[in-house]
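Instructor's aside before we start: the two examples that follow are unrelated to each other. I chose them only because their records fit on one page, so don't look for a connection. First example below.
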Amino acid sequence: MAPLVATVALLIVVFVHTSLPRVTPRGPKRLIAHASLLLVGLGFGVVSAMLTGPAAPPWAVIACGMGIVHVPALCLLVIRRMKR
């Protein structure tokens, strides 16, 4: 079950980072958006992996943590797409 959830989480991450250039202007704002999402997601995933212990594979927990951090951005991108 962990690989399936991790795959869905990583698909969310990929979708957000490929859609972000359409809504973010070039330059430092785009770089900050990408970097902040990746760093916060990685930090959340690593801390979650340290807290779960042997309950799940650490790589799966890190991937899920990254996906969870990217869900709000996914929601905003989907809302923007629906408005068009």
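Example two begins here.
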Amino acid sequence: MTDPRLVPRALLDGVVVGLVLMAVFTAAWSANTLGTWPGAAGFVVTALGVLAAVWFLVSAVRLARTRRRASTETTPEEERWRKRSGIAFGWVFTVEAVLIVAAANVLGAVGRPDLVLPAIALVVGLHFYPMARIFRRRVDTWLATVLSAVGLAGLLTLLFTAVSRDTVWGLVACGAALTTGAYGVYFTRIAAGLLARTPPGA
């Protein structure tokens, strides 16, 4: 019989992937401020984003090192859900990528490349809504709402006010980095709980 303390490998893998993705996105969004907020402000935001990314990656590595001792046993229902969620995730990710590329090209073609970054933030935010249903996580709904609001606010500000593109892009980048950073913290807490369940010597 499987030791009940063992962590399901599928759960462990999902958390590791989540941590790595949030590390990459948090660092990337933060780095956007280097070009829009030159000087100390952009450097500080980027440095904080990189530090958070390093934290997430360290948590991912620590958890991944216990993978060999994780449980691979699943019920037929769990296996079916894993396959369905994997397929659904692939479709959502594909649609997200297509929409981002399409938005960038269309906005460039109509002479509004200044709208690209907030449009990307809006698409990324919206993609969290189906993720909430696929993975049965309420946190995705909160993240979707916050990031979608950030992207939409950026679009409306550039469309209807005289605020500079760099100011808006910097604020959108900060909002997006805070959102992905919050998601990274969420995964980090889950990783800590899974590590606490790991039997001694694992």
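The CA atoms of residues 106 and 112 lie 9 Å apart.
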